[in-house]
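User: Hi! Is it possible to get a structure for several chains at once, not just one? Here's what I have:
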Amino acid sequence: MNSNFDLNEYIMHHVLNSHEWLLPFAAPVTLPGVLTSHALMIFIACSLILMLFLVFYRKNDRVPTGLTNCLEAVVMFIRDDVAIPNLGEKDGYQFTPMLCTIFFFILTLNLMGLIPIFSTATANINVTFALAFLIFTLLVFGTLARSGLHGIWKALIPASLPKWLIPFFIIIEIASIVVRSAALMIRLFANMIAGHMVIMSFLGLIIIFGWVAFPALLLAVFMYCLEVFIALLQAYIFILLSAVFIGQMYHPEH
Amino acid sequence: MPPEISQHLGQVSAGAGIGLSVVGMGLGVGLIFASAIQSVARQPEMAKQLTTLMYIGMALVEGMALLGVVFCYLALKG
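Assistant: Yes, the chains can be modeled jointly so their relative placement is included. Here is the combined structure:
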């Protein structure tokens, strides 16, 4: 039994942001200047997505095949099953590019976290805060720009509400907008960080107890497979809930 | 109460809080999936709409529970 091994510090070192890029079988690379490992992961993810859609995506094919087909299926799914049912025909078309961008960004970051040479940028609360703040801005200023103060009033206060309840409703509804965005932030962050912590804990058991803890490896592999599913599910849920919330603010009548 | 005992009590209650959050999450998500499966069994043609609703409900329940887990973890560390 290895008693001078601090499992907690080991997990935190691998999950938290730092100026070091942790590599398997090699010494960590110290990154220059203000660049942290999670920022580097975001840059890599952006270049991956740009490469995917600018280089590998062949728009001029008459019949899409291979990767083009796969990407088109995902974009079609987001347009037809996420954007249009929740936002309506016109807004659905307008919002599809943004939802696709967020979906592919989150999905790439989530899946990159499962590859040993990369780390998970979505397990950093600053990244998910930025993403959720984008949605918060759309919820507040998007409604304001689209239908003015009257639109926000109609979106927040039901028409048949008794007069004396209106002050309470204003407070509750303002809080609910903030809480919805904060829940988007916390959900992605907590799901990603929790999965990685569980995998790290199982692997840490092996370091502490040695060969006795071999079954923990199987559990870690099981958690890893679950994480692949969760990476997809969280990216989907993020854009689905964004579409639902934006739809509620833009079209309060339904 | 001596300080070391109160510190350990804090740790114990934070750990219990994590456990309780997960119990709540399990109950909630289980109920949602159970009723979604029942509904699909009754009306298979509604499966697509129900899947979306099921995931929205699951995400909302899970989000609240994970909020609890994160705060408990912060309490455990802080």
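The first strand of chain A starts at residue 20 and ends at 21. Residues 7-250 of chain A form one domain.

User: Great, thank you!
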